[in-house]
UniProtKB/TrEMBL annotation, chain A:
Belongs to the TMC family. It comes from the Eukaryota. The chain crosses the membrane at residues 163-186, 236-254, 329-352, 372-395, 407-427, 447-469, 481-501, 507-530, 551-571, 618-634. The keyword Glycosyltransferase does not apply. Residues 438-549 form the TMC domain. Pfam families: TMC. Residues 688-702 have a biased composition (Polar residues). The gene is TMC8. One of its GO terms (cellular component) is plasma membrane. This is Transmembrane channel-like protein. Its main location: membrane.
TrEMBL record, chain B:
GO terms for biological process: integrin-mediated signaling pathway. Coiled coil: none annotated. PROSITE patterns: EF_HAND_1, EF_HAND_2. Residues 101-136, 146-181 form the EF-hand domain. InterPro entries: CIBP (IPR051433), EF-hand-dom_pair (IPR011992), EF_Hand_1_Ca_BS (IPR018247), EF_hand_dom (IPR002048). SUPFAM superfamilies: EF-hand. GO terms for molecular function: calcium ion binding; magnesium ion binding. Keywords: Calcium, Integrin, Magnesium, Metal-binding, Repeat. PANTHER family: CALCIUM AND INTEGRIN BINDING FAMILY MEMBER 1, CALCIUM AND INTEGRIN BINDING FAMILY MEMBER 2. It holds the Pfam family EF-hand_7. It comes from Esox lucius. This is Calcium and integrin-binding protein 1. SMART domains: EFh. CDD domains: EFh (cd00051).
Amino acid sequence: MVDKEYPSINFQRLISDESCGSAVLEESCFYLQAEILNQLPSSLAQQNIHHQHQDRGTKETLISGEKHPGQARGASNRASTVPLKYLPACMQRKRELRDLRNQQRSTIGRWESWRRSQSINMRRLGEHVGGAISSLLPWSHTLHSIEGRFGAGVKAYFVFLRYLVYLNILRGLIIGGTILTPTAMYSRNNWGLQTFQGNDSLLDFFLGSGFLERSPVFYGFYSRGSLELPCFNTPLLFLLGTLSVFILSLIMVVRRTVVGYKHTWLLDNRYNIHMSFKVFCGWDFCIQDPEVAAIKLSFIRNDLKSYLEEERFQLRDAMRTLMERLRLYLLRVFLNILVMALLGGAFTLIYYATLLSMDQQHNWFLSLLFQYLPPIFITLANFTLPHIFRWIAVFEDYSLAVQVNTTLVRSIFLKLACLGIYLFFLIKYIKNTETDQCWENQFGKEMYKLCMFDFLTCFFKAFFVSYPVKLLVSRHPSCWLARLLGQQYFLIPFNVLDLVYGETVSWVGLFYCPLLPYIGTAKLVAVFYIKKFVVLQCCVPAQRMFRASSSSVLFNVMLLLGLIMAAITLGTNLHRFVPSSGCGPFAGSKTVFNVTAVCVDVLPRPAQTAVRYLTSETFFYFLILAQTVLLTSYESRRRAIAKAIERLKDMLVMTSSDKHFLLKQNTLSLRRQRKKSKSPAVAPGSEEASSTPQTLTPERPL
Amino acid sequence: MGTTASQLEKDLLSEYQELTFLTKQEILLAHKRFSELLSKEDRTLHNPRVPMVKIISLPELKSNPFKKRICHVFSTSDTKDGSLTFEDFLDLLSAFSDSATLEIKSHYAFRIFDFDDDGTLDSGDLEKLVNCLTGETDDTRLTPEEMRQLISNILEESDIDKDGTVNLSEFQHVISRSPDFVSSFKIVL
């Protein structure tokens, strides 16, 4: 490191002491240090495992392995348990290692050898099963090609979509087991094919009225039936099915969120490693298309530049004067009020649309239009407002990342709140006007309409907006309209918002429209193909690519929000409103939860007491207390670990600087020694060394 | 070795399956693709090598800015010309396969990014790496000021023991916290 003109001549490995008296005159510090570094136990351990196959290399490792018995043992121990393919070494080296292991195996006992081969067989079997299962996953080829052209972010969207399909299938299975099968077996209703009647039309398919209303799609179809045991009857199973769907969804979504969260935010906040990520994990090796590669390059460049700029932005932000700061905050407050006003306006519009949609109209077209008015307004608000929010965020003078996030958070709030407000007014209205009819059916119908409308929007947006625009832009690129519209990008956050919205509707509607999971599955499969068409045919890869990991956490957090909202809505509904007396499995009981009380009453007395205790408030206090204790202990453990990490980091820095200091000292003393041994004409050791030159080019462990 | 034959021998195939992360179909496909790269006279040779120029013309590698480094890392050639034998090629595909572990992938990534092969990522390596990522031409490069800021940022974040370079374990430490890495460090034929 000191002198640069080190000669590229042979020099010796400092394996033993006598080789110190080298005949080579000017050794550079650099080589000496490299030599010593090479002999460090840590590098030897690495060498042992993944040394490139060279006779010299292996021999040396063996020799030095003996010098550091502890280290060598560690490495060989590791090497004998890890499967060969897990070693980062070339094929020939792996073969040798395998032969070595086979030799070892002949020396070990029969039991040990049998055990090892069994464990290998088991592992292989597991791999085969895993491979077979993963080959069952649909669309892997499609996902791969999308990833190749649009990067991991867009793929994350499709993986999320696929995951929602699974979730829907799972929900469908639960519903099938707990609601549909008992109804089919014990229902007094006619389960046969629902036939068209005189006044039915195809329109009913979109409105959920007519023959659909009489079909098992809606709540009203299901009745108590002949299954009449106190603890095993249709209503109870109905409730059980819904509850288990919610609990299972909650577990699955939380698990997925936590897995992603653990990786990204929790660690990132403490130890900021954004830049290293961007550089070390920046390139997507799946990319094959040269065009996409060029885009990725420019994306990384822009990303790095914007990040560096953001750093400078923060510097600038820190230097703002009080006056500027005040003005900025005032502006932000004003803009936030504007955002609130926009949101309020949107909510009011939805309220009036809901009121209007309840009016009876005689003209079929007007009736269809009015019936679909709330979904249309919701979609319209969701379509325009996010773009306005994006525009507003520019003026708020936040850094870029914060801008994107605020827009997203506002959009999420808008989307879910719209739905929530719609549901609230809907329930209120339905309850006020239609006490005699089956209000659950009415509610289910609204959910069905939302679901259908969501799908129709997706369909029309793809084939009547995206595709024509793409045709226009590609055929007549000079046309002013084409230039105005420009290239289309696949905006992942907004697309995910649509998915989450659909899922929330499906969760809320589950109770009132039990076939919704099946409809949802079919819808999502169709959406998959439509979106695939949109992405592959109409979109160009975005300049600003989305990171897959952080985005998938974001997706799942949004889904979780949707789930919580759905659970709250459904819980309030079930708790507050009396089930209608004329239809459904709960006809005649005061609240939906009455069926559980009936079941509890027939249980033996100790069980009754236990159940009563478990559902009482006292138990909840204990539960909360236990949770608090658990959380406190985890929190203190986290703090202790964080402290330990800090201390270990300091220690690492200290040992590293110690190492370098010792290295320097050692190198200096070696140089001095060599200078000394050089001055006598023929040093005893040097002659020997030069006669048998162990010529080595400087080599570092790879 | 049966690599020159148009079909792989059965026991060799199972050996490859044991030593790599590839499935049987993937190995056979790799063999087919590799044989296509060989010239006629090469096929008769024992354990033929495909020169680097031909390997990097594969569509899977063509647009990769690290294609030459990848060849050099996986090549067992004594002359360090980046040429690959079939087994080297399988090693490459295995490390980049779907089922390879994070440890394997990060190890090879480190070696690919270690441009001067000295076992650590120093600021020279990092500069070359960043240049690969942003494009090599003058107008796409970062300005020297930006580059300096970026490298000092990276070292600040990843160089835990503060010795001025990023070594393998520090690198793996960073990589292990990126869930994206495994899915993006992938080349599938």
